[in-house]
Amino acid sequence: MSKAKLNVVVAACNNMGIGINGNLPWRLKQDMAFFKKITASTNDPEKKNVVIMGKNTWLSIPEKFRPLSGRVNIVLSTSLTEVPTGVHLAKSFEDAMNLVETMVSTVEGVFVIGGASVYKKAMFGSYPCRIYLTQVLADFKCDTFLPEIDEKAFTKIPNPSDVPVNEFEENGTKFHIVVYEKCFN
């Protein structure tokens, strides 16, 4: 199988927390707009991007927004028995990647959007990987955390032209986006 490039899209606060009780601990409209833009936009109007997520991430998305529009949604689960409308179900990350390979002519980008175990598979697997990390510059109580970004495996790169470089502030919470690229020797 060829190695599709993975794009991890995640927001984490100071302690690398990404969630609490199955939800985001913050509400940042500008970050959600970036998330939608980066995961839905394609250069080729004939193609779509894939979003890969775990079952809990799927369930955390408000029903009115499921499936995420304009994207191919793949949900990882070994326990879901009924396939949600508009979704592909995969039993494992590897099964999801095999499914992506069958869609290669209609897919432009592959985005991993959570949760922690799915991020870990993407970050520590053998696939080329880019991380779009929204650094939420605040402390929030969390029960779910992003795996550590190993500086031997990932290098911080200048933000591509489609990624804002400025710092934002919403509801008293500051945040900015940094991008990491997996290093292959």
UniProtKB/TrEMBL annotation:
List, alphabetically, the InterPro entries matched: DHFR (IPR012259), DHFR-like_dom_sf (IPR024072), DHFR_CS (IPR017925), DHFR_dom (IPR001796)
Q: Does the keyword Oxidoreductase apply?
A: yes
> Mind listing the GO molecular function terms for this protein?
dihydrofolate reductase activity; NADP binding
As recorded in UniProt, its EC number(s) are 1.5.1.3
> Where does the UniProt annotation place the signal sequence?
none
- Family membership, please give it: Belongs to the dihydrofolate reductase family.
Name of the protein in its database record = dihydrofolate reductase
Query: What is the scientific name of the source organism?
Result: Elysia chlorotica (Eastern emerald elysia)
User: What is the taxonomic lineage of the source species?
Assistant: Eukaryota, Metazoa, Spiralia, Lophotrochozoa, Mollusca
